[in-house]
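Letters spell out the chain; backbone shape is given numerically. Take this protein:
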Amino acid sequence: MNSFAQSVFLPLAGLAALLIFAACEPIKPEHCPYADWEATGALHASKGYDSRLPGMVDTCMKVGVLPDAESYLRGYQQGLLSFCTIENGWAWGQKQDLSPRICPPSMSAGFERGFEARSRLEALIIEETNTRQIRDSIEERLLAGAPVVYSEIYEMRQLTQKLGRLDHERQRVRNGFANWLSNMGLVPPEDLFKY
């Protein structure tokens, strides 16, 4: 690469990397003059973050730069369009305890439905696993020749009934979500039926 190309492209590549980094991390005052506010807003929303504009105003004012709030909010709205989807709600429901609740009412129904279905299915799987482990440990103890105690037999019966109720609830949630999607002409996620 000749020196002219290096003098033009290397700083631009560095600036692009800086902007991407700045959008993911809290912005540093020295990055404020170079920030792409629209891209930053879009990235924050697409990651499920609340608007970080107030904090960026505080940070950037330390170096005399006022963030372009209009551009940031325009980008944030664009990011919400990519974040507030059924698919993203489904994905977030697998690993999150709480929905980020950043989707405006006009966009939240699909995201929340996907989130609630997935998080409920995950919770049911955990509860089923824990219940099965307790029941199996009692059963193993009895099969190993431990003295039979009526309360343990009763508990095993209760745990088996609970497993049946949990399985029924899991099927109800799974099939309800699949039917809701099908009624809208959408295909359920591939991993829905692993539940």
Observations:
- The radius of gyration is 26 Å.
- The longest helix spans residues 105-143.
- The helical segments are 3-24, 37-46, 53-61, 69-83, 86-95, 105-143, 150-183.
